[in-house]
Each structure stands twice: as C-alpha cells, then as structure tokens.
Amino acid sequence: MEIIEQDGKQRTLFGDPVSKRAITKKDKSINHEFTHAVLNVKNDIFWIRLALGSDLGFAESYMLAEVETNDLGDCFKLFIQNREVLSNLSIGLISKASSYLQSVLNKRYANTKSGSLRNIGAHYDISNRMYEAFLSKDMMYSCAVFPTLDADVSGPLLESVRNLKAAEEQATTNGHAHINGHSHPRSGIVSERGIAAPVRYDLGQQNTTNEANAPDGQLTPPDSITGGAPRSPLLLAKDELEDGQLRKVRLHLDRASLQSNHTLLEIGTGWGTLAIEAVRSSGCKVDSLTLSVEQKALAEQRIAKAGLQDKIKVHLMDYRDMPIEWNERFDRIISIEMLEAVGIEYLPTYFENVNRVLKRDTGVCVVQVITMPEERFDSYINEVDFIRKWIFPGGVLPSVTALIDAATKGAKGSLILDTVHSIGPHYARTLREWRQRFEQHFDERIRPALLDDHAEIRHLSPSEKQKQVQIFRRKWLYYFIYCEIGFTERVIGDHILSFTRSGNKSLPVCCM
Length: 512
Fold this sequence. Notes:
Blueprint: E1 2-4, E2 11-13, H1 18-24, E3 38-41, H2 45-63, E4 67-69, H3 72-81, H4 83-88, H5 93-108, H6 113-124, H7 128-134, H8 156-170, E5 172-173, E6 176-179, E7 182-185, H9 234-237, H10 240-256, E8 263-267, H11 273-282, E9 285-290, H12 293-305, E10 312-316, E11 332-336, H13 347-357, E12 364-371, H14 374-380, H15 386-391, H16 400-410, E13 416-422, H17 425-453, H18 455-458, H19 462-488, E14 493-500
Parallel strand pairs: 1-3, 8-9, 8-11, 9-10, 11-12
Antiparallel strand pairs: 1-2, 3-4, 5-6, 6-7, 12-14, 13-14
Helix pairs in contact: 2-5, 2-19, 3-19, 7-17, 13-16, 17-19
C-alpha cells in the first residue's frame, strides 16, 4: 500500500515490497497477483483518528473525506491480509484506552427492550423510499443465493454470461442452451474457484455518462466515489438479485417443510416477503414480529396488495413480549438475519422464548445469521467496529458455536440442531448489487428521501447540506464495500441453521 501525505510528496510503502515489484512487472519470476492500493491523506487528523480508533478511525476519516483511496476494496483486502501484523500494533496505551472506550460503547448500545427499539430504528427507520431505491422488488435486506457468485463481474466472464443469455433466448434443448456448438446449463458460468472474482473500487474517476442514456448492454463508467465496478447490463433484462432473494426464501421454506395446516412465526418481518411467499407456497397462517414502525407499515401494505391480510398478521412486538397464549402455538419459526440484533447476552433468552412458543413434538425453527469465525469471536465482542457504531448499533455477529450453545442453554436441550448450511460467499455479490443500485439512484431517489426525512439537514446552508449528504453517501458506500470484502475473503460468514425436536421423524432428511 502506498500512502501519500497531505503535502503530496512523501510516499510510504506498507506491506511486503515484493508486491510493488509484482505490480510494476519488473520481476518476471513473480507470478502471484498482489493487492495494491494508494491512500491519499487529505487531512492530518486522519492519523489521530487512526491512532485512537484503529479501523473505526479509518472509517470515520473516510466518511469525512479526510482520506481518499484509488481502491477501497483493495485497502480492506490489505488490512485483512496483514491483520496479524496490525493486531500487534494495538498494544500501546492509546489502543488500550480506545478499547476501554469501546467497551463503554458496547454497554451503551446494549439490546435491552428499550435499547432494541432504539437500535433497530436507528437503521431501519430511515425512509422506506431509500431501501426501495437499492433493494430488489422483493425488498429482502439479507443475503441472496445465486446460481453463480460472480456473473455480475465485468470482463470475459460477464461476456460469457451475455452470450449464454442471448443463446437461451434463441433456443434451448433439455434445459440447456447451445453456445458455439457446446451445451451449457442454465445456471450460468462459474469461475474456477467458485467464488466472487475481484472487483476494483477506484476513487477519483468521474462518471460522465448518464446510465439511462447508455446503449443497451453497455456498462456505465466508474462512479466518482467508488468507480471501477460497473453496473451489470443483466439488470436491464432480468433482475438476478430478485431471483436470488426468492431462491433464498425457498431454501428456508423447503427446510421448514411448511404445510397448509401449519402456523408460522416469523421473527423479523422485514418488508413482508417471506410471510407472503410462505402463504402463497403452502397456504399456512403467519404471525410476524417487527420493531420497526416503518417496516410494519410497508409490510402491511404489501400484504394487503397480495390479498393475504387474512392469513398474515404483523405485530409491533419484541420477541420477549410474546403473550402466554402463544405457548406451544407455532409449528414453524423462521428468522432471517434478525439474531444479529439480539446481542450475545440475550441469545439464550431468544431461544428460551422460541422454545416456549414452538410445538413440543414436531416443531421446527430455521434461522439465518451473519456469523463471526470462532478464532476472532472473543476479541470481536469486546470491540465496537464501524458496523456496530454507524450501521447496526447494538448488533453483534455470533459465532456458530455461540448460536448452538445459546440454543442448548436457552431451550434446556429441547432444541436439537438438525442442519447447518453456509451461504456467506453469496453475500459478496448481494452487496455489490445493492451498492450498484445505491449509486445509480442516489441523486434521483436517495438524496431527496434523506432530505425529506431529516429537516436538520434540509435546513442547512447549501454547502453544509452537501457536506452532510456526502458523509451519508460515503458511509453507505463504505458499508457495502467493507462487508463485501469481508465475505469475499471469508472472514465473516452467513449460515442457515435448523433446529427441531428430538424424535421428530416428520421433517424430511436434508441432502444439500
């Protein structure tokens, strides 16, 4: 990593110098692909934030435009690849003081009942209009599941996918498309490694083309902030993100094995898609819990539009407040990426309540959770990182072991782990899709929604208003890329776990 000081003259190289030789191609014997990024320090306060706050300080300096980079994604990759070296730097007095302050913040953001409502509202009660601008029509704000992880990436792979889609429109045989005399499955092209190919996020390049006026099938130039990751033309013809979200929903419904006579409890309504699809596919009845007033209102509108208001009831309710009348009421419980908001100390309480309302002999609970690897879990829970301060206050990613232990403790052994599936690598592409839409619709839809919702910003002077809007924008772009690289590098995960009762033979054997 090259670091350019504020005066523009001093350059520092961080990391193994061999990387520089590889990038400049002076050493032909090196055939590895090295990560390279340039940091341009715009304000020396960046160094103070970095010393006091480590990665959180870096994030806040980026939000405030005190530091720029040619590729934010590569910066994160370098941080991950050098995390052992960087962790050894965090042993000084300043870092210890910072760790103490972070532990205080952890207590501040604790998910008590009142804290949960405040913490959820801090993120989700941003206008529904903003979420509609970057989510697909299904309004699922969780990891999608794609037939291939990197078909949205530009280059030869994307060209192959274009050819595949064009051939599919002309002729298919036994579910296969014919391209250049060869038969290819409809599921698309998969890279050799089966994981998301690298995407560059270049900063400082100007977007001079209006995407709406670009010729059909062409990629737009890089965005002025993140650049380098063009928007996929596949979105013009077919929304693969929506397909991926519905595929994820079907995974949950299949694992739950819903029947028409079942009653389903959904903990975490979102905007109602899972509840709607559950009723459409099985005819079951659904009770759904949310803490977001904004989400409840839109979910109920969507449910009514689907004509399913007699089958689905949305409750503004904490899971700890489920009435005693619900004891052993539900055949199935599904919760998608809600447990991250529970808090580690309350996980046993969550599963205690799940156990209380789930039927005793044949009940099934399916949860999808973003997870932290076991080796970093203990240190992680005592920190406040960018996500926990600026995106999901009070949120904590459990490890898979912590989840299973909490289920065992909370349910006193009455919830039996049945299956665990990892879908984490699919989140990298999901986040790219969201970021592309966020950038595409920012000026037209997201900025107006932000100003409508926040009078304190709307009434500022033009220059200060623009500054606050850009801080908001850079925060969200940082969030999308930060998380994408985490999933690409497999340093965070996403798992679907299913629990049932001992001796339940009615649940189909999973062969995934």
